[in-house]
Amino acid sequence: MIVMSLYGALLAFTIALLAGPHVIGYLHRLRFGQNVRTDGPKTHLKKAGTPTMGGVLIVFAATISILVLAPNHMDVRYCLLATLGFALIGFVDDFISVVAKRPLGLKARYKFIGQLLVGLAVSLHAVGSPHIGTDMLVPFTTFSITLPLWAFVLFAVLTMVGAANAVNFTDGLDGLAAGTTAVAAVSYALICIGLGKWELAAFAGTIAGACLGFTWFNAHPAQVIMGDTGSLGLGAALGALAVVTGTELFLVIIGGVFVIETMSVILQVGYFRLTGGKRIFKMSPLHHHFELLGWPESKVVFRFWILAFVFALLGLAGFSTGLVL
């Protein structure tokens, strides 16, 4: 059954690779070009006009693949529903950004409300599933915490919303979000295999494969940008995988790069407000700080990929320690 995750990854990769040129060409014809923020790194100005909303390619490849491999499994439906729901919010955000020429897209409060509503709907759907428990595993131990239903719903919503926005913060350089998400998805495929959840392993595999296929076109210099359609959908997919496997705390470790990127934004904004305009970093999220230090974009991306791999190993070590003990 391990081959299901491999088949899922290969199928999603192939679909993304074959569909990529057509999707990019279509986005070009629609003139769905990226609007670059003027307050960002000046090197990003040359990205203006690069087709955005490329996340539809990732979501399409992953969805078709998992519908072929495990269309009727309840846990998979939960994860797919979360992915599609958050991707739809991202799609609306990207559409507003492109059509209305507003680089920031959908207003933050509306985006957040939408995420909460989708997260709540998906979580309530999960509560009625006999396949999804309310236990949460603790890293590096054999212990688990059983949550009451209301706490499970609340924690599930926060996990998906938090993961979606963390990946969204990480998306900002060519190949960064797709590569780090692929590493995290592979880690979750291995976790699902360890738990005997083969269909979920296949879902994680399709996410990894779709990300790799997208990276073929998103590698520097990018032919297409994933936009919020991709980043919000991918983050929700990881969050949903964490919830259905009871490994929410492991996601904090495996997604260490996402956590660091998010914390850099929180610290920057908080410090800016407390000090009346001073900054900790040259710019947040953190990847922009290193760009402004003079690091080439590809160097920042590659080093963040390395960090993602290290965090994934730490998370898997914590999971395997619990299995051994």
Written overview of the protein:
The protein is mainly alpha-helical and 325 residues long. The protein has one domain (3-128, 146-248). Helices cover 71% and strands 2% of the residues. A two-stranded antiparallel ribbon has the order 1-2. A hairpin with a 6-residue loop joins strand 1 and strand 2 (144-146). Helix 1 runs antiparallel to helix 2 (55-69). The mean pLDDT is 92.
Low-confidence stretches: none
Order of helices and strands: HHHHEEHHHHHHHH
Structural class: mainly alpha
The largest sheet, given as strand count, sense and whether it forms a barrel, is:
2 strands, antiparallel
Write the layout of secondary structure elements.
Layout: H1 3-29, H2 55-69, H3 74-99, H4 108-127, E1 135-137, E2 144-146, H5 149-170, H6 176-194, H7 198-218, H8 227-245, H9 248-254, H10 256-275, H11 286-292, H12 297-324
Antiparallel strand pairs: 1-2
Helix pairs in contact: 1-2, 1-7, 2-3, 2-7, 2-8, 3-4, 3-8, 4-5, 5-8, 5-10, 6-7, 6-8, 6-12, 8-9, 9-10, 9-12
